[in-house]
Amino acid sequence: MRKLANIAHSRAGDKGNILILSLIPFEEEDFQYLVNEITAEKVKKHLGVQIKGEVVRYVLPEINALQFTCFDSLGTGVTTSLAQDAHGKSMSYALLEMKIK
Amino acid sequence: MAREKIRIGCGAGFSGDRFEPSRILLENGKLDYLVLECLAERTIALAQKRKKGDPSKGYDPLLERRIEDLLPLLITSNTKLISNMGAANPEAGARKIIEIAKKLQLDVKVAVVLGDDVLDKIQPDHRSMESGELLPSYGNIISANAYLGIESILPALESNAQIILTGRVADPSLFLAPMVHEFDWSPMDYNLLGKGTVLGHLLECAGQITGGYFADPISKPIPNMENLGHPFVELSRKGEGFISKVKGTGGQVTVRTAKEQLLYEVIDPQHYITPDVVADFSSVSFEELEKDQILVLGGSGKTKPEELKVSVGYEAGWLGEGEISYAGAHALERAKLAGEIIQKRIGHLYSEFRIDYIGLSAMHGEVLSSKSNPYEVRLRVAGKTKNKELANLIGEEVEALYTNGPAGGGGARKNTSEIIGVVSILMDRNKIKPEIKIFEI
């Protein structure tokens, strides 16, 4: 079974209680596949209970990348979260665990 | 005479960043400007607390060491330093720099940027951008700092100071200001400001565009991480530039590292809002000119916002933590038993309480980790409370698991720390009056 990690890389960023994940294919020809398959709904479902708010997807064809902006997703926000990884820095690798065809 | 090209380096991307890369940038980067970005959202609230305790403090705790390290090189390389290490007290920071210069028998002129502290302009009817709640409902407010833009830094650049020390300024503005100053860009030319903001954003986290926060030995190997170089941009008056690093340093600048950093912490790539411009990152693309030299193309912008973001720091209580490890046969089962015991003993005492199994599910939760069975597991217990003694109790109870919990618990640690929360509000920019002050020997 393949994972997103086999075909793409990702970086996690934070702003308050918003988690931001990029998704960038290693090969340009996989970009369209990601656009077709990796929807905001799929990402919200995959990441599970931590994503309490809406997930908005941005498509960036100039750099062949996707971005997922996940609202209400860092506990109570970076500064007051009880989580060990309050910033969600490791969440890029949670996204890359998603199984793909 | 006006320059056709300038070089701006970024030697620190957060308060605790490494020292050596900034030295190397000054020694061999042929820079015109060095930027040290050292002020995270919460850092300024913590600095405000230090200033309250001692009015001669409140600037970045590493300012002294960084300036001692870099001042002689700044002078010999004829490079100007722009940094937000002033934090909550840029004037005290400037006095410290003058003291260091005297000790090193060097001449220096420091321009300080003031006006970001708007604590006295905060009203109880202000509501946070995050939840819409009234500010007083969060707790005791200890700081309020507006994100200033280039208009606050430009007078400091015109003063011809060697060092410009700011408090809260939008990170990309630290880079955009010298571009506008050197190339005489109009503050109304939003496309140019957008391009400059893209370059500033790419640089502001220093090592994050040269392989830091990127390297993965399997899928994204990066050479010589131990000597990771920090980046610089060389740009023309048209706002076109390339990102690179000093030859011989470790790391890599590639189209991939640039893509990851372009989108880092960007909520909406078409509307990246700073005090100077609403920049559009969606038109940006990258091209490799040669090894470790990435040309940045595109980028544009629209009219700057009428309101500035203000970070408000408040006292959010105490965090208590305790950890203990289990290994070998039934490690996970014993760790879970320990977690259940703690939950039953003290879980009900806290407004927020969580139990994590480090090595299993602490980072990504139960679902993604459900099938793994680690050899060793570390129990982590964390709780939030207004009461410091109650916060201490968490570590004490976890430590007591040695003799009152499952078999073979080892390596207990405890920690209590004060939580400073940060929320944001918007403030009419006309209410905020930046000014500069000069300090020299």
UniProtKB/TrEMBL annotation, chain A:
One Pfam entry name: AtuA_ferredoxin
InterPro entries listed in its UniProt record: AtuA-like_ferredoxin_dom
Residues in AtuA-like ferredoxin-fold domain copies: 3-101
Superkingdom of the organism of origin: Bacteria
Record-given protein name: AtuA-like ferredoxin-fold domain-containing protein
The species this protein was found in: Indibacter alkaliphilus (strain CCUG 57479 / KCTC 22604 / LW1)
Automatic annotation (TrEMBL), chain B:
Residue span, Acyclic terpene utilisation N-terminal domain: 6-437
InterPro entries per the UniProt record, alphabetical: AtuA_N
Pfam families (alphabetical): AtuA
Protein name, per record: Acyclic terpene utilisation N-terminal domain-containing protein
Taxonomic lineage from the root: Bacteria, Pseudomonadati, Bacteroidota, Cytophagia, Cytophagales
